[in-house]
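Is this the right way to post structure tokens for a design question? Let me know if I should format differently. Anyway, here goes:
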């Protein structure tokens, strides 16, 4: 089927692109919905109906529902039902992956599709979607165009991912390996929301000018890492007031004792002469971030696990008091790479805020500087390249960095460097890191020039659309009048 439609589209000189789909999504009617997550308005399902006048194909935007009365009227038929699997088979089709052209049927397109200059659709092959301009289809299918849908919320998927990073300090390869890369891997499935949490950043002192710069920088880093605004939602936390508003309500249900148990607060406040109430309270704001979107999964490093559990506890508490309101999220911690360690003290996590610049490889480090940092990284006694955190944390950390960036398994690396010394191994690690940084920075330099503001504005609008009904539901339940 895929080849057949490719032929039709090429013959008609129509621009299109095949988009590979991950295998595990298999073929089910919701494949494209899931795949496109937030971009349901970019999905175009093709539904085959059996009517008293034969088969018809109805094409609608994924965020809308067919009104069968209207469709009957437009098609001039008295009888209309969705084709059975058997009938689809006879047409050489499978449910959920019906292609947008090449079917022996009459085509109908809903007007709302044309608000988009491209949409994603099935191809008949469960491993590929197709991206094209619906206007072109209208021509080749000789479609009848009309209004036969009603708008539906675009949130259909069951997996909802939310995560965020603060736009403060400089992001490093630990953030990339432990967080960003995991996000990118997951974004083809479900609704994925990635926030730039500027309201969290001001829990410690920030220079306003630098905070503004860092906010754009982080947006560009998200994109350079591979977060695709067509698939995922990217926005700045302070652009959606619902976060602070839900945070306030949750504040009134979190107990002091519960908050005093947060270990990160203890670490971050230790030895400081000024500690803001915001720093103490920020896990509640974070709970609001997560609960607002019916989040099911929160991919974070292990330092955030306790905060996600707090979100769960608060969600559960309110559900108990007011009835089912929040979905309870779970933290998703990567099996490996969740803790990249400092190059200077490999028993400490690599961190944005390390005073020693040589401890951390920043994503925007000059590659030559990064190379020097690797070459001067602390190693252990002995001279064997062995993955052994207990006795060789320095070498183990470098092995892990190499493995995560290059894709080799730990075993393969140990074998490869069996007869090599530390210096030779470090040179290879440095090469891998330098190549990674060069590639990453080339992408970064490209996206920093693009219209980031527009992407962020768009994201915030969509985020608000998703979160606001939840906030209003909570307001109503606690007794606020509307
Ligand atoms: P932070 O740098 O603390 O703002 O954290 C941003 C995200 O990166 C969080 O999800 C952290 O868990 C993750 N992260 C921070 N440092 C590391 C590290 N050294 N290794 C792996 N993940 C990290
Ligand atoms: N607290 C997280 C950090 O400091 C950032 C964050 C804020 C977050 N809100 C979130 C992470 C919601 C996941 C989900 O790294």
């Amino acid at each position: 089927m895929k080849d057949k439609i490719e032929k039709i589209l090429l013959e008609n000189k129509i621009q299109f692109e095949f988009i590979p789909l991950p295998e595990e999504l298999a073929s089910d009617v919701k494949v494209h919905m899931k795949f496109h997550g937030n971009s349901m308005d970019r999905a175009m399902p093709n539904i085959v109906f059996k009517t008293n006048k034969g088969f018809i194909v109805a094409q609608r935007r994924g965020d809308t529902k067919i009104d069968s009365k209207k469709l009957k009227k437009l098609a001039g038929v008295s009888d209309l039902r969705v084709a059975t699997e058997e009938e689809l088979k006879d047409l050489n089709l499978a449910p959920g992956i019906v292609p947008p052209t090449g079917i022996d049927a009459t085509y109908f397109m809903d007007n709302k599709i044309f608000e988009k200059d491209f949409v994603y659709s099935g191809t008949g092959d469960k491993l590929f979607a197709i991206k094209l301009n619906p206007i072109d289809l209208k021509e080749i299918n000789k479609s009848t165009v009309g209004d036969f849908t009603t708008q539906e919320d675009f949130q259909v998927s069951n997996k909802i991912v939310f995560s965020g990073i603060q736009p403060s300090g400089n992001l490093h390869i630990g953030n990339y390996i432990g967080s960003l890369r995991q996000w990118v891997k997951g974004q083809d499935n479900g609704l994925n929301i990635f926030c730039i949490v500027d309201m969290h950043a001001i829990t410690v002192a920030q220079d306003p000018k630098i905070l503004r710069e860092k906010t754009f920088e982080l947006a560009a880093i998200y994109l350079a890492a591979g977060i695709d605004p067509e698939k995922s939602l990217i926005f700045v936390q302070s652009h959606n007031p619902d976060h602070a508003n839900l945070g306030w309500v949750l504040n009134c249900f979190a107990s002091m004792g519960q908050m005093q148990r947060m270990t990160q607060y203890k670490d971050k406040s230790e030895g400081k002469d000024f500690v803001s109430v915001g720093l103490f309270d920020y896990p509640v704001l974070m709970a609001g971030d997560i609960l607002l979107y019916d989040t099911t999964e929160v991919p974070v490093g292990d330092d955030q696990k306790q905060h996600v559990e707090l979100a769960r506890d608060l969600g559960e508490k309110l559900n108990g008091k007011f009835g089912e309101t929040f979905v309870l999220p779970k933290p998703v911690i990567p099996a490996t790479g969740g803790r990249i360690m400092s190059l200077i003290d490999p028993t400490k996590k690599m961190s944005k805020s390390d005073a020693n610049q040589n401890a951390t490889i920043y994503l925007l480090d000059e590659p030559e500087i990064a190379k020097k940092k690797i070459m001067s990284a602390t190693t252990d006694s002995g001279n064997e390249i062995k993955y052994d955190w207990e006795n060789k944390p320095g070498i183990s950390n470098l092995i892990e960095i190499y493995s995560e960036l290059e894709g080799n398994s730990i075993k393969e690396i140990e074998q490869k460097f069996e007869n090599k010394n530390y210096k030779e191994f470090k040179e290879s690690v440095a090469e891998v890191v330098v190549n990674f940084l060069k590639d990453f920075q080339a992408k970064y330099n490209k996206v920093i020039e693009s219209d980031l503001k527009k992407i962020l504005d768009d994201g915030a609008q969509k985020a608000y659309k998703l979160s606001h009904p939840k906030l209003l539901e909570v307001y109503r339940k606690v007794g606020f009048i509307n």
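Format looks fine. Someone answered above. Worth noting: The mean pLDDT is 91. Residues 76 and 171 are 60 Å apart (CA to CA).
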